[in-house]
Write a structure and sequence with these properties.
Blueprint (H helix, E strand, L loop, with lengths): L5 E5 L5 H10 L3 E5 L3 H9 L3 E2 L12 E4 L4 H8 L16 E4 L5 H13 L3 E4 L2 E2 L1 H7 L2 E6 L2 H12 L2 E8 L3 H29 L4 H9 L6 H5 L22 H18 L4 H16 L20
Parallel strand pairs: 1-2, 1-4, 2-3, 4-5, 5-6, 8-9
Antiparallel strand pairs: 7-8
Helix pairs in contact: 1-5, 7-10, 7-11, 10-11
Family: Belongs to the HIBADH-related family.
Pathway: Amino-acid degradation; L-valine degradation
EC number: 1.1.1.31
Length: about 300
């Protein structure tokens, strides 16, 4: 793919905005769309173009990337009602890369619908959080044909560091859902352990350092510590704002439950994490970062 390829980027939330910004920095021709006009203006200031409606697609658009909250949003963008979504508006031969985390069944349905219009479709959910999105070090977990994966790779490499081809359509979503189920378990368990230590007189930073270098070490301790004051750049250091929302973790854990039910897999730890995030979202703002779940174990950390 040439760097002059015309890209439309849909969804400028906490993840999408820095991803689109990295494409602009790497010299791609990027047009953005989001209902949040402030987010759009920020990208335009960095060199992107804008459209006010998805009916205003730039001529000769060759690639569409979307980063949206849930499957319903993705289906609405591409399928719409009575086939009035984006697929009929795109030229045959176009490529669509959806980076949202949605059900694998939705991804397969979208790929099938895209193929009817001669459009290639990849499900390419990401891992790495907002820091990874800003730094351009995300992991992309891609489902689709090997040929389309290779076609998309130069664009994905402008936004990420680790680009995985998980398998056919939907495989990217299955891998991402498994990853996020484990992440939810790790965050809840790590929060529980740190809170237990603090309540028994330990310093959260000292305890985190001990565990990170011991057998309990994990990504949460090393990169995304949930206790305020331990990691300045983690969401816990900024009031649990502008991170991966707890409501989205809850959504992903529900996707994991549905996936497990579809194949008869037993996921008791996933169910425990789901119960804890249900409890958190019922009693706190769902827009807080998912690491704010530590407030269940040491109330008062979330102001």
């Amino acid at each position: 793919m040439s760097e002059k390829i015309k890209i439309v980027f849909i969804g400028l939330g906490n993840m999408g905005a820095p991803m689109a910004a990295n494409l602009v920095k790497k010299g791609f021709d990027v047009t953005v769309f989001d209902l949040n006009q402030e987010a759009v203006a920020n990208l335009v200031a960095q060199g992107a173009n804008q459209i006010d409606s998805l009916s205003e697609l730039p001529e000769n658009t060759q690639l569409v990337i979307s980063m949206l909250p849930a499957g319903a949003h993705v289906r609405n963008v591409y399928l719409g009602e009575q086939d009035n979504g984006l697929f009929p508006k795109l030229a045959s031969g176009s490529l669509v890369i959806d980076c949202s985390t949605i059900a694998a069944t939705d991804a397969r349905e979208l790929a099938e619908a895209a193929a009817k219009h001669g459009i290639a479709f990849l499900d390419a959910p990401v891992s790495g959080g907002t820091a990874g999105a800003a730094a351009g070090t995300l992991s992309f977990i891609v489902g689709g044909s090997a040929e389309d994966f290779e076609r998309a790779k130069p664009v994905l490499e402008a936004m990420g560091k680790n680009i995985f081809h998980a398998g056919s359509h939907g495989a990217g979503q299955v891998a991402k859902i498994c990853n996020n189920m484990l992440l939810g378990i790790l965050m809840a368990g790590t929060s529980e352990a740190i809170a237990l230590g603090v309540k028994n007189g330990l310093d959260a930073k000292v305890l985190s350092d001990i565990m990170s270098k011991s057998s309990g070490g994990n990504w949460v301790l090393n990169v995304y510590n949930p206790y305020p004051g331990v990691m300045e750049n983690a969401p816990a250091g900024r009031g649990y704002q502008n991170g991966f929302m707890a409501a989205l973790m809850l959504k992903d854990l529900n996707l994991a439950r549905s996936l497990a039910e579809s194949c008869g897999s037993d996921t008791p730890m996933g169910e425990q994490a789901l119960a804890q995030y249900n409890r958190f979202v019922e009693t706190h703002e769902g827009q807080l970062d998912f690491s704010a779940i530590i407030d269940l174990y040491e109330p008062g950390l979330v102001k």
